[in-house]
Structure formats: structure tokens, C-alpha cells
Design a protein that fits this description.
Number of helices: 11
Helix content: 55-70%
């Protein structure tokens, strides 16, 4: 635990949005104790892309920790095992993925691979439009290129749909600051892709709605306290200050998160 978490955070920092690190659980401690320990170690910060969760999405099959599973963007398991034993293998797999993301997969026709790379550079609208041109009636692309382009369209379209579902989850669960950042990226990336414009606009309208004004104010207050908590440690943020947010914004998503953090700062 003492070396595997910092190593994973280092990988998260190195690979940025090419990687999503999710920490699940510790051994012989409660979730609140694990959360408090991570905060005081400086492993948990508002600014880090790494995530902590109480919900284990799968079992690795290992009887010891730290164990891991490395998934590709479609959810396929690439590697799994004991983290400390396989760290080099994990690094090599991530390096290969990062190269493929930058230059495009080697196993695809050049014209298709180029657009897959464009997609992962944050230009999904441009990439999908170019791939659609390869499959359009009258296209001069070879049958092999057309088939590969259609497969890529299906895969990348599913990725955009997952991004939209993630936005819905963020909005449903009160993570408005993150949703705002991701909406901005999607709006830029899907510019000119008419089939996605409405979907993005609907979520932007929801985020800016009067209905969420109080919720967003509550989250803003909580994030200010969280920043102090994660930078200074559990001893610097009182349960009373967290309770004040819950009392000021009763029934809000931020209030529920503040109440959950009370258990963390009070954990032994």
C-alpha cells in the first residue's frame, strides 16, 4: 500500500487523460478510515484525476492486495494481478496505449488509424466526420478501409455516448464543477458534428438552469472546504464546518457529501 498508491498516482500524473486510476479498498480498515488515511498521506486531492470509490466494480481473483485490473477504453481487461509484482508490465502496456493514442493503432489502415488518433487528441467530431466520408456512398476507399472505418465509427460513437452518460451521472450526483469542465471539452471537440450538438446543448442548459443554482452554490462551498481538507489534512477541517454546509443546504448533493466527510474526519 505504501508504495503502490504513490506509484499509481505517479502514473496518473504522467499519462493524464490517457489513464484513469480508481482506488477501491484497503485491508482490515473501514472505508472511512481508508479515506482519512489517504487524505493525511496527501494521496487524495481535489486536483488529482485519480479517484477513490467504496464500490468495487469487479474482482481481480487475487487473494492479496494490492491487486489491480487494467482495462482498455472499451472495458476489455488487458492485465490483472498483483500491482507490486506487475508494475513493469503495467508501465509497458500504458506506454503502448499512449503511443497508439497519439499515432493511431498500428493494426488499422493508415487512413482510419489517423482519425482514431485525432479522436483521442480531443477532436471526436472531426474524426467521426472523416471516417463517415470513408464509408459514404461513392467513396473511393478500399473495401478493407471502409470496413475498418465503420468499425471505428461504431467504437468511437460508443465512446462519445459513454462521455454523455458520464455527464448525466455527474449532473445527477452533484459534481457540477467537473461536469462544466467536461462539457467545455465536449463542446469544442464535437463542434460541427450536428448529430451531437443537441445532446451537448441539452446538458449545458441543464447545468445552467435555475433549478441547479442552489445545488451549485452548495458544491462551491463544499469544494472550498475539501481543498483545505485535502491540502492540510483531516485535523484541519472540523466536523462542525462540514455540518454547517449540510445545515445551510439541506437535501442537496453537497450536503450528503459533507455528511459523508464528517465520518471521515472523525475516523480513528
Amino acid at each position: 500500500m505504501g508504495t503502490s498508491v504513490p506509484a499509481a498516482l505517479k502514473l496518473q500524473d504522467e499519462y493524464q487523460d490517457s489513464l484513469q486510476v480508481v482506488f477501491i479498498e484497503g485491508s482490515r480498515v473501514t472505508s472511512d478510515q481508508m479515506h482519512a488515511f489517504a487524505i493525511d498521506k496527501g494521496w487524495f486531492d481535489v486536483g488529482t484525476a485519480a479517484m477513490w470509490s467504496k464500490e468495487a466494480p469487479f474482482k481481480t481473483g487475487e487473494s492479496v492486495i494490492p491487486s489491480y485490473a487494467l482495462l482498455d477504453p472499451t472495458g476489455k481487461v488487458l492485465l490483472k494481478g498483483v500491482t507490486t509484482r506487475d508494475h513493469k508490465k503495467i508501465e509497458e502496456a500504458l506506454e503502448e496505449f499512449a503511443k497508439a493514442r497519439k499515432k493511431g493503432p498500428k493494426d488499422l489502415p493508415k487512413a482510419v488509424s489517423k482519425q482514431v488518433a485525432e479522436f483521442y487528441k480531443g477532436k471526436p467530431g472531426k474524426a467521426l466526420k472523416a471516417l463517415s466520408a470513408l464509408t459514404a456512398e461513392g467513396s473511393r476507399a478500399s473495401s478493407e478501409d471502409q470496413a475498418a472505418a465503420q468499425t471505428a465509427i461504431d467504437t468511437l460513437t460508443a465512446a462519445v455516448e459513454r462521455d454523455l452518460k458520464r455527464l448525466d451521472w455527474l449532473l445527477d450526483n452533484g459534481f457540477y464543477a467537473v461536469a462544466e469542465d467536461e462539457l467545455s471539452d465536449l463542446r469544442k471537440g464535437l463542434k460541427g458534428a450536428d448529430e451531437w450538438t443537441t445532446a451537448v446543448a441539452e446538458r449545458s442548459t441543464r447545468l445552467e438552469s435555475d433549478e441547479l443554482k442552489s445545488e451549485r452554490s452548495a458544491e462551491k462551498a463544499l469544494l472550498k472546504l475539501q481543498k483545505k481538507l485535502y491540502s492540510k489534512g483531516t485535523g484541519k477541517v472540523s466536523a462542525k464546518s462540514l455540518s454547517a454546509i449540510a445545515e445551510k443546504y439541506p437535501g442537496s448533493q453537497a450536503a450528503a457529501r459533507a455528511e459523508a466527510l464528517i465520518a471521515v474526519v472523525e475516523a480513528d
